[in-house]
Specification:
Helices cover 41% and strands 16% of the residues. Strands 1-2-3-4-5-6-7-8 form an eight-stranded parallel beta sheet. The protein is built from nine helices and eight strands. The chain starts with 15 loop residues before the first strand and ends in a 7-residue tail after the last helix. The radius of gyration is 17 Å and the shape is globular. The protein has a single domain, classed as Metal-dependent hydrolases (TIM Barrel), CATH 3.20.20. With 269 residues, it is α/β, with parallel strands linked by helices. Bound molecules: zinc ion. Zinc ion binds next to loops.
Amino acid sequence: MSKEREVPKPGPGVRIFDSHAHIGWEKDPQKQEQLIQRAAEYGVGRILDVGIDLASSRAARERARTHEGLFASAGLHPNDCSVFDEEWPELEALGQSEDVVAIGETGLDFYWDEVPEQQQIRSLEAHLDLGKRTGKPVILHCRDAFSRLLDVLASWAPVHGILHCFTAGPQEVAPCLDLGLYVSFAGPLTYKKNQALREAAAMVPDARLLTETDAPFLPPQGKRGRRNEPSFLPLTIARMAELRGTSFEACAQLCAANAERIFGLSPSA
Ligand SMILES: [Zn+2]
């Protein structure tokens, strides 16, 4: 197994935006504060705190109200959308509220197979519809369901949204871009065997590129075996910068500016 690696600390003035993390996965409020603080120490001053169901979406909105650098999304993860009928009306109201900047995460997941395909699609389409009505981007999760997801999205194109934690190869990039999506990369970009994923990341045009942790999942190389957290994002950005032939600072700034644009935020100082 690889040895623990130091996270590069960016210089002052470098802005880093974690476009996808689940802060609420850490249940202890004090530890939540610590991980938000640690993120800031590594330059990760802004985080999209992503809801996966009603309770986590409400909690994300509460944190966003009380933390300058946190922004909330509201939605129902495809693995949790068996509660769609009960939870959707209130999620829809949350998604419309001004403290929520994105809709999701939604999408399709045929790996875990916890919810039947038709139910997942129904939930996904409700999120896409809400995204259209509010003008807010939709956060899309996809696991073992790429072609089905593209089929569904085709009838909603152009889709103002993000394919988060992209894990496919170079040939899957173009259809996402054609739909209008931003493409976001997480820790798997740094894993030794994932050369195809790095080729995919090299193909995304500057204006559509995002980086994220998907914390607490998928820690980057150098932190594998640990619970992932936003302060580890510089490891992924460093790898992204290397494969795109740019500097760490330029890559961080580019992805932060893209996140601010898609979430409708003013640039951070
Ligand atoms: Zn997620």
